[in-house]
Amino acid sequence: MRWTWSRLPTLAVVLLVCVVLRMSIRLSTDHQPASMLNQRWFESLRHLSANTTRTDRQTAKDIVNGRKFPKVLRTAGRRVFEVNCEAVLRGDLEEITKGRELMEKDGFVRGSNISETSYIKLTMDCEKFKDDQGYRSYILSAEEERFPVAYSILLYKEVEQAERLMRALYTSRNVFCLHVDMDARPEVHQAVQGIADCFPNVFVVSRKEYVVYAGFTRLQADINCMQDLMQRNNDWQYFINVPSQQFPIKTNKEIVQILQIYNGSNDIEGLTGNRRLEHRFKFRYIYKRVTKKQIKPNIYKTNYQLVDPPSNVTIVKGSAYGVFSRAFVEWMLHSKAARELLDWMRDVHSPDEYYWATLQYNQNLQAPGSHYSGRPDDKPWLAVHAAWGGVDPCKGKYVRGVCVFGLGDLAALVHKRHLFVNKFHLEYQPLALECLEEWLHNRTAEPAHQPLNLTYYRKLPFINTGRAS
């Protein structure tokens, strides 16, 4: 907005009145929570804006939205007191050892420990829940407002971890689809539904799946969310699927800036050659229940070879997770070739690790967002970083060949160029996740102090350098 010298006196008066109002509210509400003070502060600003010129009204509106003075809503500071997170993130071995020893002690209780029953009770008062959990303190810049992102969050029992993940990504413009495994306990379903009911931009998927490890329903769960998101919201630009064990290492604003550079390109992992694990898709896999009481079946390999995949495609392996443009999602849901390949994938082991990559790297399918023509293995994949056994260092522990990160991993993780890191377990070195939360919160509070260098992303070989998609 362009300002002229003639308007400065008027603006000065507006700001002076705002300061006086803020001080008077604090003096008269010594025992009220900060959230209520902010609410009364904003209400006073709105009343003031009704009696000013259009320019001054816009100024007041910008203040309310956190654009002119974002620190009114969120300030940086220490949030974890059992350990010095700043020292941990510097790689201070003494502080890391202190934190590990503390967590190994009998009787150690992590700072935040909210059960499913507690979530059910807390979400009966949505306004208080949002205040207490910090959902009102996000900073929404004009750039983020114009570029909403859609997420699916898959969970089985980790309600608190899923809620913390959503909170880290939350803005009023982003939209969230929560998929709870159909086999989860009733309290988990009820707790997640309670959380979703508190937000207009959060919902539980309309069709839940019994998610079988390495089975087709794992892939179907994400597609169900994609379908619901396409029907519910017309604004989001990208879709990102995450499990509850992941956590972002970029702020929402940084994610938006990176996705804008992608300009409609997808970020999907691709592996070829021996890395494809051909036995997973050369032979047919079937599902069997060992006992009659067993709800979820087990998956078994047969000696029957699968027919060749449709559309003359070459199977490419990748990750179940990725960054997908809206155009890609819409095409996938309606393309005949994509639907035929999806049906073929029903007999494949871990189809979620083959479907997205195969769609992306078969140029004859002309999938939207596929702007990379080189060898898939050579393309940088930045959706999520995971540490694999025998390949990457891990200061935590390995579970199924993947590192569950601990305090000692954080110093390296925060310097990764990825959007997310995978994975954390709240029951294993919980201070690791809490320190990462503190770090991300403070980056969100004071982004000007730690700006993200976008040069690397602008030089990526898979971005769309043409006109806007």
UniProtKB/TrEMBL annotation:
Entry keywords, A to Z: Glycoprotein, Glycosyltransferase, Membrane, Signal, Signal-anchor, Transferase, Transmembrane, Transmembrane helix
Topological type in the membrane: Single-pass type II membrane protein
Pathway the protein takes part in: Protein modification; protein glycosylation
Major subcellular site: membrane
Signal peptide: 1-24
Transit peptide recorded as keyword: no
A Pfam match: Branch
Cell compartment(s), UniProt: Membrane
Family: Belongs to the glycosyltransferase 14 family.
PANTHER family given in the database record: GLYCOSYLTRANSFERASE 14 FAMILY MEMBER, PROTEIN XYLOSYLTRANSFERASE
Protein name as annotated: GCNT3-like protein
Lineage: Eukaryota, Metazoa, Spiralia, Lophotrochozoa, Mollusca
